[in-house]
Amino acid sequence: MALVSIWKACIFEMLGNMFFVWIVGIASPVFTLNSPVGIGIGLAFLYGSAVAMVTFTLKPITGSCISPLITAFSMAIGKTPLVRGMAYLYAQVLGAFFGGGLVSAALGPGANTLSNGGCVINPAGNFKHGQAVALEFIAALILLILVHGVKHSVHPSQMRGYDLEPLLCGWAAGLISFCTSGFLPLDGYFGAFGFPNVCFGLAMGMLKVHQAFSWAFWVPGFAAVFFYGVLYRFLKPYADLLLV
Fold this sequence. Notes:
Helix content is 64%, strand content 0%.
């Protein structure tokens, strides 16, 4: 599948991230529920459906990475050229920033009370940064393995593959969201998602730049990219498959 030129693809990657961050951010008022199960189901549906829809829409144009972690991993294993990958990363961050700004504009002053789409660690809670780092790392690693594995398991020559791949990617994101969201409301941690662009976009767009815990949503994810990237280079798990 030939992708369009870099600048066109970057525009759509930026738009996709803007839409994705806006959808997650504008839905944040829903997560005032007191039930951890209600929060978990809501986050799973939100991230799962948003990832599936944006991935399905952008797949023919950009390959639809959405998450900077997926883009960085694709660069690490040599699937995405360095120039295109870096351009995608800039587009994703820029789109996330615009998406966060639009959420702030739509919700007004009330945006400052939102949960940043789930990117929250309440310092007054019982949840420590080290626990968040561990959860974010394994969640990002699982997301990378599942999403990349789906791309190989669904044969691109079959037309149904283009329908099935986004659905499975969304399912993976929703599953991770649900499984890691059980620490609210008692511990003040919404869970891990594998999409640090959402955290960045909403924090910057809502001018919450003072949040001391923001690094916990970025550093573990890129550590997972490095770990699985090295592992992938050595093991070459899909080397015997005739799939791209």
